[in-house]
Design brief:
This protein has 7 helices and 12 strands. The protein is of the alpha/beta class. The protein has 2 domains: about 80 residues, ATPase, nucleotide binding domain (Nucleotidyltransferase, domain 5, 2-Layer Sandwich); about 110 residues, ATPase, nucleotide binding domain (Nucleotidyltransferase, domain 5, 2-Layer Sandwich). The protein has a 7-stranded mixed β-sheet, with helices on both faces. A hairpin with a 2-residue loop joins strand 6 and strand 7. Helix 3 crosses helix 7 and helix 4 crosses helix 5. The chain is globular, with a radius of gyration of 18 Å. The two termini are about 15 Å apart. It binds adenosine-5'-diphosphate, ligand PAZ and potassium ion. The site of adenosine-5'-diphosphate has 11 residues, from loops.
Length: about 240
């Protein structure tokens, strides 16, 4: 049994992997990381724990506190040159976000062809994995919600408000909502051009539902690709330990 934990900048997600599937999943706001203590008390005591964290040292400390005596045995995913069938061309490899590395590992476990790996969270990351499992590079773009917030925060006249998506928006709210989605979809579609025609685009993350409808690509929605990669990592680590 494995508990996989993905600490992102907005939310901390976890899943309990048993018998080849997810036995339970949950999430809390990263700002409420102290609440992990209560959550962790419900995790199976004998589970192997796999973690990736891109939310900083304070969150790492909250995770260690929540894991208590189990913290030392937990496996923290550290991006490197090669792991679980994925090879990295990132420079330096260890600077890659651990969540991106986990998503690439999860993607490779599902797909043996080239693919585009998109994680739409606080940031949207758009990463290219080739048919040999080599991570060739990728983009970091402000996420859908962060784009909208940044417009509201840096201008006098733009609100942080919901709008409708339109091809030709005719009001401020729709112009913002549509602009942010067009920008994300455009970045994804542009990077996709570097892949062989017909390659799948694996799409995950909290903002995936908002983005999916606007991508003119063969999209495969995956609820928690990062957690899948972490489970894979934990299984492989266990096998080689
Ligand atoms: N239930 C939800 N409905 C719509 N959007 C959501 C929901 N939950 C999260 N989000 C959006 O998803 C983003 C967070 O996604 P997530 O993949 O958890 O990010 P991160 O890994 O950066 O913490 C936030 O920007 C938020 O706006
Ligand atoms: C790009 C990210 C901010 C994405 O974080 P998230 O949106 O999942 O919270 C994170 O993967 C990160 O901090 N990466 C380190 C830098 C890099 O990947 O190059
Ligand atoms: K992300």
């Amino acid at each position: 049994m494995i508990v996989a934990i993905d600490a992102g900048n907005s939310r901390i997600k976890w899943g309990i992997w048993a018998d080849g599937g997810w036995g339970g999943m949950g999430a809390l706001e990263t700002a409420d990381a102290a609440g992990l203590v209560a959550v962790a008390s419900g995790w199976p005591a004998d589970a192997r724990i796999a973690v990736c964290n891109v939310a900083g040292e304070g969150v790492a400390a909250a995770l260690r506190a929540a894991l208590g005596a189990r913290a030392d045995a937990a496996r923290w995913l550290r991006p490197g040159l090669r792991q679980c069938g994925v090879e990295s061309r990132y420079l330096p490899p260890e600077r890659l976000g651990a969540d991106r590395w986990a998503a690439l590992i999860g993607a490779r476990a599902r797909v043996s062809s080239a693919c585009l790996v998109v994680c739409a969270g606080t940031a949207t990351t758009i990463d290219v994995l080739d048919a040999d499992g080599v991570f060739q590079g990728g983009l970091i773009v402000p996420g859908v919600d962060l784009m909208r917030r940044s417009l509201a925060g840096a201008t006098a006249l733009l609100p942080y408000a919901d709008g409708e998506f339109a091809d030709l928006p005719r009001c401020t709210q729709d112009a913002i909502a549509s602009g942010c989605l067009h920008a994300q979809a455009g970045a994804v579609e542009r990077l996709y051009r570097q892949l062989p025609a017909g390659s799948p685009c694996l799409l995950s993350g909290g903002s995936a539902p908002a983005l999916a409808a606007h991508l003119a690509l063969p999209v495969r929605r995956i609820d928690n690709l990062v957690l899948e990669g972490l489970a894979r990592f934990a299984v492989t680590e266990g096998a080689t330990a």
